[in-house]
Amino acid sequence: MSIKKICCIGAGYVGGPTMAVIAQKCPDIQVTVVDLNESRIAAWNDENVENIPIYEPGLSEIVASCRGRNLFFSTEVDKAIDEADMIFISVNTPTKTYGVGKGMAADLKYIELCARQIARVAKNDKIVVEKSTLPVRTASAIKDILDHTGNGVQFQILSNPEFLAEGTAVADLLAPDRVLIGGDTTEEGQKAIQKLVAIYANWVPQEQILTTNVWSSELSKLTANAFLAQRVSSINAMSELCEKTGADVNEVAKAIGMDSRIGSKFLKSSVGFGGSCFQKDILNLVYIAKSYGLNEVADYWEQVIIMNDHQKRRFAKNIIQTLYNTVAGKKIAFLGWAFKKDTNDTRESAAIYVADDLLNERAEICVFDPKVSEDQIFFDLDYLETRTPAENKAGLQVDDNPYSAADKAHAIAVLTEWDEFKTYDWQRIYDNMLKPAFIFDGRNLLDKEALEKIGFVYQGIGS
Ligand code: NAD
Ligand code: UGA
Prior knowledge:
Helix content is 44%, strand content 13%. By secondary structure, it is an alpha/beta fold. α17 (426-431) links the parallel β12 and β13 (438-441).
């Protein structure tokens, strides 16, 4: 029997967009996305579809087309689990902040809670799909919990990691490079795999749907993120060498990227990668390697994070040095706070750490971001616990207009590569800044030559 009802636990950046696309492509399947967070569910159900809690280009249109038809958002977790043939677990798996593995291992408490809830509620056989990114061998822990319910219900556990990137989530989901599904090698396991394959086959070509054993699938997700982040840290390492030698990192990236063995993607030097996953997943990989005694493997991957931290810190340090070794009392305008363009997600954004360093030096920061709210910006800073919330409020302001954000500033720091920054009236911005007017372009986004012609002192990354 094919799947008729899907439940997805977790209505976040992955659960929401992924299920919206499944609902759009599979009109015969009823998809219910559940979450404990009532305000998040209320936002997904907001009459005005522009108010859904996640900003992704194209997402509100898809939600509008399916919501109330075969796509539902609800806080009734038990009900949705009970009714579903297939349950996706798409909850957060953050880095542990306590106990064994603190600061390294993935915190699996939300995953375990889901497994226990499914075990408690399920009355008929179900396929449970790991959509969250998990340490290799988590499926065996989930299976252990589910197999000890004593109520005779049979569970199959699949691993189906998500590879979407924020800002391009919808495009990535509609045309994925591949879909990866791992399952048991038993006959029952293979049948479960085929049921999930059949769902994706509604829009993904069969040859792009890969099936593997569960462990390969779980580990492939961590590996993919580690490789992607490693490329960014590698090019960022070269950016520092470029600055010392007169080479230009953009030219170096182009030259090496044309080698088809290297490829041109993910070679954009920046103020450092952010986002909820790269750091978390590499730390997790490092922890797993260490737990098997593979210290060289662990050290190798840890260096990717060390390099990234260095890149963020050296960006802030360069601002301070260039502004004559003091930023105390100087206004610095931040363009961008999100960890990349086209998203309102700020988790682990480099902007947070650069702001923290500059606030330590008593700079006065004024932030403009087209999609990030003031509350979120203060939440991010307060979360670091470097200062009291009152001190953060005293040192940083948020402006909803880029021109007033830059008014009377000593410097502008570009932290996110929002396209609109390129189209600003830079002459007008220059005229209202203090001179010399500095721009620190952490994304190599702006037109250096044009800005220098206006009179700006421009510094990008890696040249
Ligand atoms: P998120 O924090 O945006 O969403 C997770 C949601 O799960 C939250 O709304 C939370 O309230 C809910 N939740 C937690 N425990 C719950 C429970 N017991 N019952 C019901 N709801 C519960 O997280 P996310 O960014 O969507 O990431 C989810 C997973 O997907 C993570 O493992 C992440 O590594 C992985 N992932 C994320 C991305 C991305 O781009 N964000 C991409 C690929 C994979
Ligand atoms: C990343 C992966 O690209 C996804 O495949 C994966 O599913 C996801 O993590 C996840 O597991 O969460 P995401 O973090 O949303 O996606 O965005 P990316 O496009 O990978 O960018 C991550 C960070 O690296 C951003 O801060 C970005 O600005 C930075 N970056 C990216 C660079 O500095 N240079 C580059 O060349 C590319």
